[in-house]
Every structure is written in C-alpha cells, then in structure tokens.
C-alpha cells in the first residue's frame, strides 16, 4: 500500500487539466481535499484502476483529516520517547508522568503511554501534528523574525496548497466578518500586535510553544481587495517538519471554520 506524504503526492497523479469533473475548480484544490480526507481519489475519472488500487486501502482508513492509524502510530512512538528529557526541548514541563505543553495558551498533557489530556477540544487534525512536534522539535529558540510559508525550507513546492487550505479560507471569513475574525483570535488566546506590518489586524497565536503563527489582515480599501497572510517564526522549520506546519495551519483554519459556522456564517462563505 502506498500513502500520501503531502498533497503534492496526490497532485502528481492527476491530469492537471482543471476539467472540473470532480466538482473542484482545479486539480490542485482536488489534491488538497484528497490529502485532507475530504474527497476520495476515485472522484477524478482519469485515475486508472492500478493507481486507485495502490491507494484505496489508505483512503478507506481515512477518517476526517487525519487517520486513526496515524495517531495510533504516533502514540506508539511517544511511548518510546523520554518525555521528561523532552520537556525543555519542546518548551513544556514534566510532572506526574505527564509532559504538559501550552496549546493556544492552555495546558495540554501527554502521558508516557501516549494518552492525551486537555480541557480544550483537539481534533485529530491538530492532535497528530502536536505529537509529531513533541517527537521531532529541535528546541531552537524563537528568532522573532517572521517569514512566509514559502520561505521555510521546502515551502516553495507546497506554497500553492498552503495558500488554498489556510490563507484563502481564512481571508474569506475575515472579509465577511472582520469583527468575528478578531473574536476568534481572542478565543484562541491570540496576542494583538499594534501596527503589525501596517496591517489592519495582526495577531500572534501560539498553537505550540516553539511554533507561533502570525496572521495579518488588510481590509479592502479604495478599490483594493483585502489580503490575509500567515507568517511563521524563522525557526519554525527547525522545530517542526514542514508537513506539520502545513497541517497545523490547515487544522487551525478548520477549527475557525467550524466556529464560524456556529456563529451563523453560511457554509458557502467558509467552505
Ligand atoms: S477531474 Fe481530475 S483532472 Fe479534472 S479537475 Fe478534477 S482532479 Fe483535475
């Protein structure tokens, strides 16, 4: 069985004609949704049976965005990891057989047997990157220098997908409900930056101790359309694999989307 390491793996299998027979506007959008578990590969009629056979087992295991299988694997790796020694490296503390780190400023604990404890709702899309962060974070101090996803090591190749799954959907929410967008940042304990890059709204979120994310939004003005950009500390690609940064960002956007829907934003706006 073969598996997708990222959405580019899916994209490479496609015709790249943007014919829309899969009901997506582009092959890139389709690839992204297949990787995220929102669509199955067989919805593109141009994928041959041999290729489908190689991937269908993985597809059948897909549940939402991250598979339970992946989480199971990661928990097993956590069991082999010395969480006490890892605490400083990942920016957490260790006590009572649990490593505790702050996720959006709130405690999130992992026991030596891989079990996770938190007051905040963590979906599987967020849980898997958190565990990968604990396993692979190098403990590099923050530089406080903000860079784009494209500038991270390997970011150039995945930047199109990052824009589609993170920046564009977030901008849609901000365009329609800018005040709600600010409220959402408050819910996630974001810190507002005054005059951040001369944007109208600029906030920093702390989804992981050594992986802050800055979101800057420019409102539409004088015929100019709005803009939204997501930035990372320049140490991000040393403290997390690019794939983790990508999935974490997309996972956060998904959480925003769900909250937005609860606030009554039509699905067509946030989908
Ligand atoms: S049906 Fe296949 S080739 Fe056509 S747009 Fe969708 S993914 Fe691309």
From TrEMBL:
Organism: Desulfocicer vacuolatum DSM 3385
Keyword terms, alphabetized: 4Fe-4S, Iron, Iron-sulfur, Metal-binding
Name by which UniProt lists this protein: Putative Fe-S cluster
GO molecular function: 4 iron, 4 sulfur cluster binding; metal ion binding
Name of one Pfam family that matches: FeS
Family matches, as InterPro entries: 4Fe-4S_dom, DUF3786
Domain 4Fe-4S: 1-61
Signal peptide: none
Keyword Iron: yes
């Amino acid at each position: 069985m073969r598996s997708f390491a990222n959405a580019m793996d899916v994209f490479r299998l496609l015709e790249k004609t943007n014919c829309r027979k899969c009901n997506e506007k582009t092959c890139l959008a389709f690839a992204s949704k297949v990787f995220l578990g929102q669509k199955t590969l067989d919805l593109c009629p141009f994928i041959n049976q041999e290729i489908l056979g190689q991937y269908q087992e993985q597809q059948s295991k897909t549940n939402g965005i991250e598979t339970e299988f992946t989480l199971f694997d990661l928990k097993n790796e956590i069991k082999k990891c010395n969480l006490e020694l890892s605490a400083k490296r990942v920016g957490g503390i260790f006590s009572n057989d649990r490593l505790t780190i702050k996720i959006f400023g709130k405690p999130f604990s992992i026991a030596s047997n891989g079990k996770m404890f938190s007051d905040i709702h963590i979906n599987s899309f967020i849980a898997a990157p958190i565990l990968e962060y604990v396993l692979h974070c190098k403990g590099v101090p923050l530089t406080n220098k903000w860079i784009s996803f494209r500038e991270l090591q390997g970011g150039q190749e995945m930047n199109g997908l990052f824009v589609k799954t993170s920046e564009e959907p977030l901008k849609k929410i901000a365009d329609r409900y800018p005040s709600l967008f600010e409220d959402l940042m408050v819910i996630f304990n974001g810190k507002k930056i005054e005059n951040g890059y001369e944007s109208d709204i600029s906030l920093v979120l702390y989804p992981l101790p050594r992986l802050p994310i800055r979101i800057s939004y420019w409102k539409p003005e004088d015929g100019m359309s709005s803009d939204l950009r997501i930035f990372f500390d320049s140490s991000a690609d040393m403290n997390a694999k690019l794939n983790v940064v990508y999935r974490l960002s997309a996972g956060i956007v998904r959480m925003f989307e769900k909250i937005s829907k609860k606030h009554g934003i039509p699905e067509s706006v946030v989908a």
